Please model this.
Amino acid sequence: MFPRHDQFVSRHIGTLGPERSILLKATGVSSLDELIGQTIPDDIRMDGPLDLPSALPEYEYLRLLEGYAAKNQLFRNFIGQGYYGAVTPSPILRNVFQNPGWYTQYTPYQAEISQGRLEALLNFQTMVADLTGLPIANASLLDEGTAAAEAMLMFYHQKAGKTRESSPNVFFVDRGVYDQTLAVLHSRAWPAGIEVVVGDWEADPLPSNCFGVLLQCPDKAGRICELDRYIDRVHQAGALVAMATDLMALCLLKNPGELGADVALGNSQRFGVPMGFGGPHAAFFATREEYKRSIPGRIIGVSIDAHGHTALRMALQTREQHIRREKATSNICTAQALLAIMASMYGVYHGPLGLKAIARRIHSLTGSLAQALTGLGFELESQSYFDTLSVKLGDGAWQALRGRAEAAGINFWYADSSVRISIDETHGIQDLSEICAVFSEGKPFHLSKPVQPSIPPALVRSSEFMTHAIFNSYHTESAMMRYIKRLENKDLSLVHSMISLGSCTMKLNAATEMIPVSWPAFANMHPFVPQDQAAGYRQLIAELEQYLCTITGFAACSLQPNSGAQGEFAGLLTIRAYHEARGDHRRKIALIPSSAHGTNPASAVVAGYEVVVTPCDEQGNIIVDALREKAEAHRDELACLMVTYPSTHGVFETAIREICDIVHRNGGMVYMDGANMNAQVGVTSPAIIGADVCHLNLHKTFAIPHGGGGPGVGPICVNEKLKPFLPSHPYIQGSDGKPVPSVSSAAFGSASILIISHAYIRMLGPEGLRSATEYAILNANYIASRLSSHYKVLYTGALGRVAHELIIDLRPFKDAGVSAEDVAKRLMDYGFHAPTLSFPVAGTIMIEPTESEDLAELDRFCDALLNIYQEIQEIARGEYPHDQNVLCNAPHTADVICSDHYVLPYAREKAAFPLPYLRQGAKFWPSVSRVNNAHGDRNLVCTCPPMECYLQDA
Model:
């Protein structure tokens, strides 16, 4: 009766209202319906609105979510098992975690406008390398379980023979490894043909045909052991060793490098990152120098810029597995950059002395508790521990103890005839007293400082770590605040301008969506609490699953995959499990169009498929007859087709239903890559086009921020046939089907940020979701209309329309000596991040404006590209040399423009302020000139260089 004026849809969609008519006129249509009719084939148009709840105003949504939060019961958690309470220092919480200048950045492909987060990630690598004692560390992985799986696959490929039959295929896992890690190992081992053998490293012989071993120290029962001799024996047997460990424990324990491990891995969550019901958290992975070309994920490396100054960039040979396509050994194409940055800032803020103090306090509290419990007559499973005690209990005694503990608002971890208690930095002496009260049943107990060492002398750390000045300079809040801001100012993010990345959908990450992520009721929830304690989370998750099923037209959803690539992998596993359950063990062929994103063949290979490429025509469409021929030729082996829709070229292919039908007739299933789902929501769906499973990028279409290269969430939605095969988890009651093993460590992946997508859907409602899609398509066609008089739009649909993105062909400018990279770098001088460069076609840029941008911003972007066109013409006319012009010298730093020795053949104003809007607060100064990637690849340095390098550059 009294609707609120302030509706979220009008805040989210930038061109809603009077601007719409301007865009429609420029695009040559009279209405949005007319444009959508020209863009999306009639036979796949959705009838009627989505069956979703009506839109909620922002204020009312937050009130609704307060009710969900109230259903979560925050007991005092001593569960451990890889997840710990952590204190996020307020300067990091306020200035990084809650700051759009950090969480809206894109992956640092454009190094010149990414130096801030690159430095923060280099700090992370240095911290991990120092703590683990291994020289090469990457910039994070998705979680501990997938990091362990990556180690297994890396070892497998290192020890591979000329054929699979001649390759060792057994991976030995100690029984002390976390259960969730073991589950993820099974999901990666199955398609690779690896046999996972679980045993006791102390009692069991190394299996024959073994290529690698995974140990955990401290293990899941809290034990720490002397492993160096065992590791030597494994090496003598010709196998490699990975050690899952804990960065906080390594402040006091001898590091894996000194023990002889080949890989160290784990979760950096307890370095200031909330538990968040399982994620997102940054895993770490470090290895020896000889494996630097095989390490999964990204490495941040040190290079130089065009003027010889130190500059950072992603090392080309390691930054993305999908570059390798069918030769990939991993399907990791993302990281947890924002969380790695938080962990690195935690290390910078506390420094080595602060970290040692935190670790000693945790360890001392644990020792004090151990003394008190043994004084009460309880026996410990091990006398050597860091932060976790395993207390022996008689048969059936744990049930009574659990009842007393939960009545007191306390969670322990219960295993067979023992209870495990993990202490973290949030705990204090009062917590120990209340634990003892649960155990004592009224008997007196005494808490005192521990008198017996619990770390064997041979395992006490003696080596220094984090000696670099970065970790020893910013320990006051003022200094830390300024350091964080200095790095933030080096990076272009959505707080500066639109980031028009095709296939990446850099849309608004609304403040109302983000705020609840740091509410204690969501941030501080352990993923393994009893289910009734997480009723609010479970309600939100169940609703989001249903919303995504409605949007996709499918029957079931799994939110477990914690990246888009993990979603691809999970979807492919469900297809494989479906075929094998029917006895179709030969179905291993995956048809993939030649235009596909590189993650598709990479994920297919890791999922155990053989990739067969199907060609596209000059318009970028799948050649239907060629696909039919390949499908029929592989009729008995065909497992699936992987297809992106709208296509990777930004077009709604009219033959999509026929394509899906061909695959089905030949016994295969259709996997739809959801990278371009922003052009589907509310107007069509994966089910309507004929797909069987799709993954969704919640960090694209559904508003979760990119975080500088992660976090991501890549859930899968499936039809009824595939529903029984959705991923399981060892600690969650599963379905009655035959689920594939876990693909991520936590049952619901990066659960805390699911709030963002839930909020996005509830605040837009069915009409707003459809409008978001329509305006994304309108904005893209507006840009195509404005640019088409000067640039060639490479692909369009049957009626001349693009979908939500468009490809601009820059190859015609080669004769002027101008490359697509030159245009990308020159856009930085105009205050813009480059569109997607040379994908899916080399020498092009792919532009996706999203629905979030207003007309003024769209025009600024178009004006920039049109002015760059004029600059290209100046070069073509010979007004400036091919090797000395504003494009090949771009980007221009303030240092270059302000130099007393400015010698460039064009005016400073032309270089730095080519359009008037740049003088009105829109100017962004890159902090380095064009980075020399080749230099960095020839001289790989992935830890912080000496401070003298920075002083010399200054």
User: Anything to note?
Assistant: The CA atoms of residues 228 and 260 lie 6 Å apart. The chain has 30 helices and 26 strands. The first strand starts at residue 76 and ends at 77.
